[in-house]
Amino acid sequence: MSLRRYQAQQLLPGWDQERLLESTVLVIGVGGLGTPAALYLAAMGIGHLILADPDTITEENLHRQPLYTPADLGQLKVIILARYLQHFRPDLRLTLYSRWADEAFLREVGASADLWLDGTDNAASRLAIDAAAQALSKPWVYGSIFQWEGQAALLEGLSYRAFFGEGTAGPSCAEAGVAGALPGVVGSLQAALAARYLTDPDQTPKNRLFRIDLATGLWESYALALPTMAEAPALPRPALELTLEAAQQIPLLEWIDLREEGPTLPYPAHRWPWYQWDSWPLPERPLLLVCQHGHRSRQIAFALRKKTGRTDIYSLQGGATAWFASQNSPPT
């Protein structure tokens, strides 16, 4: 096929269309994130896409996965997506797997790809991808969505687990809700990061988290680099998460509210922007970080422990939601 369709794209400084046409991307999960990512990678000229997802299309998918239609209900997502992509770009090479990408799959099939793109938005899958990527020295693009918020990062040489820890399984889109357009925004960003890396890796923003909140219009990014620290002896470490009852037993505990809006916490708290965590003026007193559901606060508490070597930085288990629920009354 003629390269004319990429004419405007090839005007970009540093862009190497031929290099992209020779590249392979493994897309793990072709739902809300993986579908727009695969579409834009195909549109930009990726040479080979490996699609992996065992899921079938359900009616509740349609508001955030608009490539699929009511006529596709019950069919495998990889089949329907591949049919569209092949019609859109007949020269695109496609390889399909109706299975999840576990460790064995990533080592066997993923080894042939130049880059992996995580469309699962699932904590357990993300950690498995991270572990395999570290073992095989593979760059990968992380993406995540929650209600009106989304974030993405291209990781190379930096472990997701080392920065964010083991994490906890958060509520699914079906449980917490998600704005239908949000996966399109984040999935497109993932595709852009992947294509940029494959054509001009030296100029790609690697190990940098991009975060958007469509409810407030906030768009932020910050580096994920961890400081170099001497290895400390392996000693027992206090738990990273605290229940409200456990937090009440720690004297002089300093509360840090990471939420950008919402009802006031029951304890005096600083309200600091979560995305500026690496420049916070940390007090010497023990710290308790609080977000809405306890996921972001856990990640940042883990990162702050890594950065400072302190063990008295905690996350409130369940976040502000758990606190207000324990009071048996809605927040005011």
Would you write up a description of this structure?
This protein has 332 residues and is of the alpha/beta class. The protein folds into 2 domains: 3-223, Rossmann fold; 241-326, Rhodanese-like domain (Oxidized Rhodanese, domain 1), CATH 3.40.250.10. It contains 11 helices and 13 strands. It has helices at 17-21, 34-44, 77-88, 103-108, 123-136, 160-164, 173-176, 182-199, 244-247, 295-308, 319-326, and strands at 24-28, 48-52, 93-97, 115-118, 140-146, 149-155, 208-213, 218-223, 241-242, 254-257, 269-271, 287-290, 313-316. The protein has an 8-stranded mixed beta sheet with strand order 3-2-1-4-5-6-7-8, with helices on both faces. Strand 7 and strand 8 form a beta hairpin. The longest helix has 18 residues, at 182-199.
Short structural summary:
The chain is an alpha/beta fold. It has helices at about 15-20, 35-45, 75-90, 105-110, 125-135, 160-165, 175, 180-200, 245, 295-310, 320-325, and strands at about 25-30, 50, 95, 115-120, 140-145, 150-155, 210-215, 220-225, 240, 255, 270, 285-290, 315.
